[in-house]
Amino acid sequence: MATTKDTPAAREQGDKSAVKASDLAAATAKDGVLFDVRDLEVYFPIHEGFFKSMVSTEKKFVKAVDHISFQVMQGEILALVGESGCGKTTTGRTMLRLEEPTGGHILYKGLPVEKFTSSTLHAYRRKAQIIFQDPYNSINPKQTIFDIVAEPLEVNNVTSSEREKEDRVIKAISEAGLRPATEYLYRYPHELSGGQRQRVCIAGATVLEPDVIVADEPVASLDVSIRNDILKLMVEQKEKMGVTYIFITHDLSLAWAISDRIAVMYLGRIVEIGETLEVVSNPQHPYTRALISVIPVPDPLAKREHVILKGETPNPVDIPSGCRFHPRCPDAIDACKETDPPEKLIGGDHYAACLRIGE
Amino acid sequence: MSPKAKTKASEKKAKTDKKAVERIEHAGLLDVRELTTHFKLGAGDVKAVTKVSFVVEPGESLGLAGESGCGKTTAALSILKLLPENGRIVSGDVLFDGRNLAKRTEYGMSKIRWKEISIIFQGAMNALNPVQETGKQIAEPIQLHEGLSEKQAMVRVRELYDLVGVSQKRVMDVPHQLSGGMRQRAMIAMALACNPKLVIGDEPTTALDVMVQAQILDLIARLRKELHLSFILISHDLSVMAETCDKGVIMYAGEVVESGTTTNIFNNATHPYTRLLIKAFPNIHEKREMVSSIKGDPPNLINPPAGCGFCPRCDVRIASCATEHPELIEVEPGHFVRCVLARQGV
Ligand SMILES: Nc1ncnc2c1ncn2[C@@H]1O[C@H](COP(=O)(O)OP(=O)(O)OP(=O)(O)O)[C@@H](O)[C@H]1O
Ligand SMILES: Nc1ncnc2c1ncn2[C@@H]1O[C@H](COP(=O)(O)OP(=O)(O)OP(=O)(O)O)[C@@H](O)[C@H]1O
Ligand SMILES: [Mg+2]
Ligand SMILES: [Mg+2]
Fold it and tell me: What is the pTM of this model?
């Protein structure tokens, strides 16, 4: 698990606005809003060579997340969708403060995450878990399944007896679909299939009974036959245990299959967000439309038109002027080169950021 | 033995073979008949491919699909005789343009690979040498097979970059300077380098973003038309096969369980496995329901079961399925299904 970055937290110890662990324990999700992300910015400085930094005075940044706002409702599955490099992982990691935001706010149950003291962060990380993008590198091959799943309990000192620890590990493993759990406890990761290993990651994330799990491409490396079980498991945990999921995926069809709402990201921005079925059946942003049009469909007779975008996502260091999507947009007009489009309300809680909406 | 030494050794033998060579009559450009390939392991032989048959016509694209481990890559490597040390073709024929590749010597195969049949290896775009210029890596087979100098081969590489839509300026880039999409285009360029008649793409779009996948599939379709290429597309993603292939083969545990045109397979799926597999992919154009998974695992290929390999996972099995191994049945012209129920017209 991640280590606490102490410096900024420590800095805030003396700060009056610092959020103490007791504040977090008392907080609730008002009106069902678990996360309120406001104008979040995560820039990574580029470390240029010595010579270059002498010549140019301008500091350059990777604008991984470039001012996004959205909410996550308690007990929902919110999908973050978009192409590689658009900022999905950075968004998820920053929400758990595994990355430091460079601007904006993340309110968790109304409390600003960036103001959490290190003890608050410690408590927070019990409530907010992550399933990392690459399961093969995120579990220790030398530990047994039992030890892997028990680790968060030990690190957080949550169980009072060996017995209790064992019970919780077994419960998490069997809820993750490895049944009977006792058959898996003393195996090593290499003695499991890819799907089973992914279940171990899920068990490790759920053993602390968190409120929210950021699942970063949890099924990307899995075969269909196994993939669906993992997706089902997420839905089941949402429904039975009220776990909120932030489901990160580049595959819009998987997002469609299980999420309540979808946020489509492009180059550090959310270009469209809304209820899943509404966004997929009534996409308003040309990028969303293109993404939907290229999803392969298991029907050779369905000859649909593909909107294949030219080129690739630009580098997040030099973001295009105006609407950042304009160089690849099939519908761009002159104004798109100059004006960064604001979010427009389409209806309900469906928003999209495109100048040409409503023309 | 190094590949070069191997070639030398078989050279003599090939010369004596030559007289005996005559054109074999067969269907299509590639006619794979009852191909059977095993791997030797301490625990026994892995029966990775069992009696697999299919035909690829000139200019046609055929999809090979099925779960991980069902034998797709092994079938492709058998066609090109690029199996690892412990693998061997046990029986069957690989008839290609009048010759039986299954019976061909290593030297004979070296004349076929790249020049007549090429392959985009599974994961190849991530297996490129990280410190060598990508263009030079692509030039290697051209130098080897066309007997060109590096300089001449690089001219060809530049043309190929144009063809696959990568800027010529990028030929001297090392792999990590290229995006995933560009690297995969470069791998396609490499496969096309010696003007083959047939290209095998082993999961060429897996691990790419949907938009990049769409670009690559579009590129393959365009090249097929322009160059009148035949293509075998190996993919575990059935939707990709549905959209890009003329014909399809569904494999399960080393065997063909269903084959036919993609319309046969998707619009008249008959094998219970094919049906479940199709249902396992979300289709955003239909009503949303929780996608189902296929319970259980494929059988052990060292000791495959006596009956139907899919029986333990099948939702419509009957008593005899556990003991009787079903044959492929032609349920409509060109549409084959390996299921006892197919005979009764389910
Ligand atoms: N620690 C870091 N330092 C510098 N740049 C970073 C860092 N982490 C991410 N980036 C850059 O920020 C951008 C967004 O990355 P991120 O990993 O969030 O994308 P993603 O949407 O999760 O992509 P993928 O689908 O490939 O996982 C990328 O350009 C990436 O290279
Ligand atoms: N060198 C080898 N030695 C022993 N068994 C092998 C070897 N290579 C492959 N196999 C086995 O042969 C079977 C078929 O493997 P193959 O790689 O052809 O599957 P595949 O359909 O390409 O799967 P994937 O979708 O995962 O690429 C598998 O059971 C695999 O474990
Ligand atoms: Mg990511
Ligand atoms: Mg394979």
Answer: 0.88
